[in-house]
Write the structure tokens for this entry.
Amino acid sequence: MDISIIIPLYNEAESLPELQAWIDRVMKANNFSYEIIFINDGSNDNSWDIIKELQQKSPNIKAIKFRRNYGKSPALQCGFQRAKGDIVITMDADLQDSPDEIPELYRMIKEDGYDMVSGWKKKRYDPLSKTIPTKLFNATARKFSGVKLHDFNCGLKSYKNIVVKNIEVYNDMHRHIPYMAKIAGFSKIGEKVVQHQARKYGTTKFGLDRFVNGYLDLITLWFTAKFGKKPMHFFGLWGSVMFVIGFIALAYVLTMKLISIMAGDLRPLVANSPYFYISLTAMILGVQMFLTGFLGELIARDSPKRNRYQIEEEI
């Protein structure tokens, strides 16, 4: 099979017939063998009934219905697990992603040799309240990940099948799939300018909280990628630094007290010096961070994934 198209959706009943007909036209015009996998993420409209009607007319449609709304990342993960096509395409169900982009996304994987290609909605039909935070988020993601993309969160992407089988999308990590692919060893990541369609039906399902969550998820992904298998390298290092700072501050306080005693002045109390509290706080934090790193190493040692590595080829 050439292509698997994964479409997560939540309350998009109005757009589904038009989207499915559009995809069929593009696929037949290019003689692709394909499957469409709809992931109904707990919709409370009649999206599931529409999908069942479409499936009766088209044998290429497969579908999953979640019992409740879990989010886009779990929907994509379930789709990735079931995808059988050589190339996997993801797109949103709101008609803002154009199926006309699919042939070129397919070609860039097949002919240009990219592991994945991410869409870039260079011209967007969104309000400034959405576009400005998006630009800031993308700039931060580029800096942290080293992946030079302009639009990390674009729903229109294409992948080699092996890529989606070697990443795990959870929580709200779908925004960082290019970074996750890089961590998994798939570093040839391309970008294509794609058309952004104005929303035709319904309303957006995303709020401003996604930008806050996006930053937190990015930090989590960066930290686990860098120190997930060696937590002592982070916590042990900075714990030691904090302890040394505290020890130096304590040595200073004790030295000043000894000098005062030798001079016959017993009045200055150790607790009157700010360095006393600096030493106390820094040494406690240092010990706690060091112990955190030690416990992290014990957990990592017992992890079933501790010796799981990405092997590209073996002869």
Observations:
- The chain has two domains: 3-227, 232-301.
